[in-house]
Design goal:
Blueprint (H helix, E strand, L loop, with lengths): L6 E5 L10 H9 L2 E8 L1 H4 L6 H19 L6 E4 L2 H12 L4 E4 L4 H11 L4 E4 L21 H10 L40 H12 L9 H4 L12 H5 L5 H13 L4 H26 L21 H9 L5 H13 L4 H14 L4 H11 L5 H12 L14 H8 L4 H6 L19 H7 L14 H19 L6
Parallel strand pairs: 1-2, 1-4, 2-3, 4-5
């Protein structure tokens, strides 16, 4: 029987929620008083991979969490500095003998938690993913490196149901005499995303709760960047304002209650995307070196061009390819980008401009509200053809065809590249082909108001195939005569 004076620390990290929080449940099981604490770690906040928009979303999420805690008789304690030192001081102040936290699987988090667990009573609970990396492995114990068998093995594990989801506690008791820093002001806005657990729940319900909800159309609408055909839950999953289990349970329920085969296919397609997220978490945990180099050893010495002017044109959306520029401007304006657009711009940077995929990976992490080390690295290596289960290196997206296929009337381009707003649909994805008279009527002169393409598609294709071929030849083992 626990003493009524005992306290447990709930170390909040990327689980900014009260419902279905296994770390919070563990803290409540350990002691009658719970101390929710968030530690402002300078190593993370000052990282060159950090994003001001993502930091702003985090700080606003902490404010929302604090309000939810205060409504239950508790509050969020904020400390700063090295987490180990901050937590050790908090143990001294509270007498707590348990620190409950949600397990994270990034190389940084794994190393940090191993170090802290040597000196502190740190107990880790699941939550970032449904099935932890060590739970979904091959028969020999190794990690899967191809998605399809990983997906089959993932689905063969026990799947969560609605009864597994833990309700938010009605009341929480936190010792009153604890100092706390103010939650920092948000350094930048994050348009389109309200940071809170309530907003995450609202989005999840709106996406999947009704028979006519978007999840049923997801399989056919997810690739169209001009419409609201995706869940836009990625920032909320990134910071745990919705749990992985909540998302998976919602997908499974939507599939089971689907009113048609097409609607079921939509729910299953979204579940598949959630499994991709867990696949990339598993890859990063098993192969931490992918943050620094290509997974494929034969593609680690590609002779990149790495032209700084080309990279800057890509960053600001001035490449002369409208679908690429629209996507990059959406990223700059909102801190978010549609997933199909992410694939298009990543392929363009690597395979048209012959720029190292790590430049793009870092730029995305510096911009994205939902930037996640595992998913971002996995997506970039997939697009570059250098990763596990990647798109073949010789598959090179044609940005004109990608625009025609997924933004056929140019609505997405017109929204984010307003200088092309009056360009006819027949020319919207290749405006350099407009006759002079059409350019005059449209109010845009190619090379003046809007740039000409910075690279020719045919030239870029041949150049990247040659570069990848050279890397593979250099990596091939030499045979003795």
């Amino acid at each position: 029987m626990t003493s009524p004076d005992l306290a447990a620390i709930w170390w909040v990290r990327r689980d900014l929620r009260l419902s279905d929080n296994q770390a919070l449940a563990a803290a409540l099981a350990a002691a009658p008083h719970v101390v929710p604490v968030f530690v402002l770690d300078p190593r993370l906040l000052n990282s060159r991979f950090n994003s001001l928009r993502r930091t702003a979303f985090l700080f606003d999420g902490l404010r929302a969490l604090d309000a939810a805690l205060q409504a239950r008789g508790s509050r969020l304690i904020v400390r700063s500095g090295d987490p180990g030192e901050a937590l050790a001081r908090l143990i001294t102040e509270t007498g707590a003998d348990t620190i409950a936290a949600e397990q994270d699987h990034s190389p940084f988090a794994i190393a940090r938690d191993a170090r802290l667990a040597r000196d502190l009573p740190l107990y880790l609970s699941p939550g970032v993913v449904v099935h932890a990396p060590g739970d979904v492995v091959r028969q020999d114990g190794g990690a899967y490196t191809v998605f399809t068998p990983f997906s089959r093995a993932w689905k063969a594990q026990p799947l969560p149901g609605a009864r597994d989801l833990i309700p938010a506690p009605a009341r929480l008791s936190t010792p009153a005499a604890l100092d706390s820093l103010p939650i920092p002001e948000s350094p930048l806005d994050h348009p389109g995303f309200t940071a809170s657990e309530d907003e995450a729940a609202r989005r999840l319900n709106a996406f999947a709760a009704r028979r006519t909800s978007p999840i049923g159309r997801y399989a056919v609408e997810r690739d169209l960047p001009s419409i609201d055909g995706t869940s836009r839950l990625s920032p909320y999953l990134r910071f745990g304002m919705a749990s992985a289990r909540q998302a998976v349970v919602t997908a499974l329920q939507a599939a089971d209650s689907a009113s048609s085969a097409a609607a079921r296919q939509g729910a299953e397609a979204w579940l598949n995307e959630l499994i991709w997220r867990e696949f990339y978490v598993s890859i990063l945990a098993a192969f931490p070196g992918v943050r620094r180099q290509a997974f494929r050893a034969d593609l680690r010495r590609i002779p990149w061009s790495n032209d700084r002017a080309d990279f800057e044109a890509w960053c600001v959306g001035r490449t002369g390819y409208p679908i690429v520029d629209a996507a990059m401007r959406q990223l700059t304006a909102t801190g978010w980008m549609h997933n199909r657009a992410r694939m298009i711009v990543a392929s363009f940077l690597v395979k048209h401009l012959l720029i190292d995929w790590r430049w793009g990976e870092r730029w995305f992490m510096q911009q994205l509200v939902d930037g996640d080390p595992a998913a971002n690295n996995g997506g970039w290596q997939w697009s570059a053809g250098t990763g596990t289960d990647a798109a073949p290196y010789f598959r090179i997206f044609n940005p004109v065809l990608q625009g025609k296929n997924f933004d056929p009337d140019g609505a997405y381009v017109r929204q984010w590249v307003p200088e092309l707003a009056r360009v006819p649909a027949a020319h919207i994805h290749a405006p350099w082909e407009m006759p002079d008279g059409v350019q005059t009527t449209a109010g845009v002169r190619i090379g003046r108001e809007y740039p000409a393409p910075i690279v020719d598609h045919g030239f870029a294709r041949q150049r990247v195939l040659a570069a990848y071929g050279e890397a593979r030849r250099k990596a091939a083992p030499r045979t003795s005569r």
